[in-house]
């Protein structure tokens, strides 16, 4: 995992990049779940969305560690 990203002299944690990618992936996935009516089966939608985001973040970080040296 990369340590930091230098953005014009401002150091941003590498995890922030992976968080943004996971959030971008979660948006169409949540829209798909709404369209299919899956949320009718979910008891607490915000809690489910948070869990979905955490799972996606873990997947993105795991894939990034496998592809980056």
From TrEMBL:
The chain crosses the membrane at residues 6-29, 50-68. InterPro entries: DUF1656 (IPR012451). It comes from the Bacteria. Keywords: Cell membrane, Membrane, Transmembrane, Transmembrane helix. It holds the Pfam family DUF1656. This is DUF1656 domain-containing protein. The lineage of its organism: Bacteria, Pseudomonadati, Pseudomonadota, Alphaproteobacteria, Hyphomicrobiales.
